[in-house]
Every structure is written in C-alpha cells, then in structure tokens.
Amino acid sequence: MINPDYQALFTTEVMQQLLPLQRADQFFEALYGGIEEGAYDIRLVFKRHDPGRNSLEFELELQERPGKCLACNLTYGLPQVFSRHPVLNLKGVALEIEKVFQGKARCRSWSLGRTNPRSQTLHVIPFILTLE
After folding, report:
1. Which 3 state secondary structure label does DSSP give 38?
2. Beta-carbon neighbour count of residue 59 at 10 Å?
3. Does residue 99 lie in a domain region?
4. pLDDT mean over 45-50
5. In 3-state terms, what secondary structure has residue 63?
6. Is residue 1 a part of any domain in this protein?
7. 113 assigned to some structural domain
8. What is the rounded distance in angstroms from the CA atom of residue 114 to the CA atom of residue 125?
9. Could you tell me whether strands 55-64 and 122-131 are parallel, antiparallel, or unpaired per DSSP bridges?
10. 25-32: long-range pairs with CB below 8 Å, 24+
11. How far apart are CA 12 and CA 67, in angstroms?
12. Cβ contacts of residue 7 below 8 Å, gap of 6+?
C-alpha cells in the first residue's frame, strides 16, 4: 500500500469528478420524474485515512437547497437507497477512487454509515472504503 498525502490526492476537483454535483439532479429526476422536488445537493468529501483499519473515510454531504427543507425529508433511510441506486452508482465511485492509486491499492469493500444530521441544513452519510 502506498502512503500518500491523502488530502493532496482527494482535492475538491477530484471529488467533483468522482461524484459530479449534477448527479443529485439526475438522482431526483429518476426518483421523482423531475428535479423540482430535490431538497438537497450531494457532495463527496474526503475526511481521513484510518491506518488501523486500512480504510478511507469519505462523507456524502446532503446540503439543503434554497427554499427546500432538508430536515423535512426522510434522510435516515437514504444509506440503503444510495447504496443501490444506479444513478448515484457508489460502487462505480469506489472503483474510480481505486483508480486514483494507479494500481498500488485496491478497494476490498465499501459501505455507508448512518445518516448524521450536523445541522438543520446539513446531513452527512459516511462512505467508507476498506483497502487491500
């Protein structure tokens, strides 16, 4: 396993390439038939490397959209929905993250944690990749 500076690898630009901001609109289009009902934007953020577990911890930030109510939405069931939804394609995102390592590390598995409300307008879902 390489020992890179993970913050330098997972810049804001790389995160936006891995999970483009317009993917939230595509998700709501598939879910509701239009983006008008979308209450939040989804952003992928790198948090840290856990060497003890050989894992990378990211977060899916759900940021309330203007004029919408994030707290009024059922965000607690989203980890199950997000893990299977083909538009979000988190399995594909995990494979793209693996490519950042250029063959020096592989993603053995990935999982989503429970929704964590940080504020009324920001909820996060942990996205954890275990490396080998």
Report:
1. coil
2. 19
3. yes
4. 94
5. strand
6. no
7. yes
8. 6
9. antiparallel
10. 26/87, 27/85, 27/87, 27/88, 29/87, 30/85, 30/86, 30/87
11. 26
12. 46
Tell me, what amino acid is at 40? Y
Those residues whose C-beta lies under 8 Å from the C-beta of residue 97, and which sit 6 or more positions away, are 18, 56, 58, 107, 129
CB atoms within 10 A of CB 103: 8
Q: What is the pLDDT of residue 1?
A: 43
Long-range CB contacts (within 8 A, 24+) of 25-33 = 26/87, 27/85, 27/87, 27/88, 29/87, 30/85, 30/86, 30/87
48 touches 54 (CB < 8 A): no
Residue whose token pair is 């709501």: 28
pLDDT at 46: 96
Question: Is 71 a member of any domain?
Answer: yes
* pLDDT tens string 55-107: 999 999 999 999 998 877 777 788 989 999 999 999 999 999 999 888 878 99
* Containing structural domain, residue 110: 6-131
